[in-house]
Amino acid sequence: MKKNRQLAQDELLNLLKTLVETPGPSGSESTIRATVLANIKDFADEIQTDALGNLIARKGTRKEGGKRVMVSAHMDEIGLMITHVDDNGFARFLPIGGINALTCLGGRVLFMNGTRGVIGVERLEGTNIPTLDKLFIDTGATSREDSKIGVGDVCGFERPFLDLGQRLVAKSMDNRVSAAVAIAALHALPENPNEVYFVFSVQEEVGIRGAITAAYGVDPEIGMALDVTRTGDTPKSAKMEVSLGKGPAIKVRDSSFIADPRIVEWMIREAKAQNIPYQMEVLEAGGTDGRAMQLTRAGVPTGCLSLGCRYIHSPSEMIDRSDLVNAIALLVGLLSKPIILD
Question: In the chain, which segments carry CATH 3.40.630.10?
């Protein structure tokens, strides 16, 4: 088994900053995949990239009393794809994943070819809320011929990582913060009976596609998704019992799957054993890679470890520093001993 070590706090923040600032909308994950690979190659026993582009890293070999576990954190992010460039160089687009026009206005974007641009809006009548078809991207081009982008080109939002002390803000905490959790856990995981496959999946934002093929290939006995979840702690927010700073959340259900009760209880026991604060998550709308693992082959007991995140699918998603640290500790604890499901 490869070496293990815990990431120091400054290393963890630098890792998170690198991940969130690396572009990688669904279907265009090559750059973020290379970034993840550079951060795990010295700590995994085996690494492969499957046909769909999932990065799969194995650590450990299953021994007596151990399980084959798949931990899946999607590495793609929401973005935009160009559908048309007009005679004056303005580009129209469609969304990649869940995009709200209100969070786009005035936003800056970075294309995978390095071109940058700003999102503008047509003149609106009265107080009408704009729709995506009223928006365009201005890259500074003066004509279609002058444009450095064309039909099919893809971009993500461009915002710098922001450290507010206890709170951390970036444009793609969904789901790069979970990728950071997985990387840190892979680094820290000690010798144990389990064979753990850390999957950094693709195309989750457009239908949980990458995890479907990865789960079929790994064929796990236990599945664990890592993702963000909404909070109910902002003014007049939806009623939800998840808040920043009160610990990682143990998912009970979302709109894509119901977590296996045995997995939920296993996670609760470990959190209590480590004295880690935790929250119970019931998410009304939204899905995770957990669905793909649960339904693969003949079925897999699956759960999800979530991090509360404000302003999901906006250019400024916010998480809590202590939730990140506690999520890593909880995941390492879950994976580093024989797994017994009651």
Answer: 9-77+171-335
| CB burial string 321-332: b at 16+ within 10 A, e below | bebbbbbbbbbb
Catalytic residues: 204
**What global pTM score does this model have?**
0.96
Fold of 9-77+171-335: Aminopeptidase (3.40.630)
Q: What is the pLDDT of residues 184-227, one digit of tens each?
A: 999 999 999 999 999 999 999 999 999 999 999 999 999 999 99
Task: Tell me the per-residue pLDDT of 312-325, one tens digit each, with 9 for 90 and over.
Answer: 999 999 999 999 99
Segment holding 12, helix H or strand E: helix 9-21
The CATH class that applies to domain 79-157 reads mainly beta
> Residue 179 forms beta bridges with which residues?
none
* Cβ atoms 171, 158 nearer than 8 A: yes
Positive or negative, the Cα torsion across 108, 105, 82, 31? positive
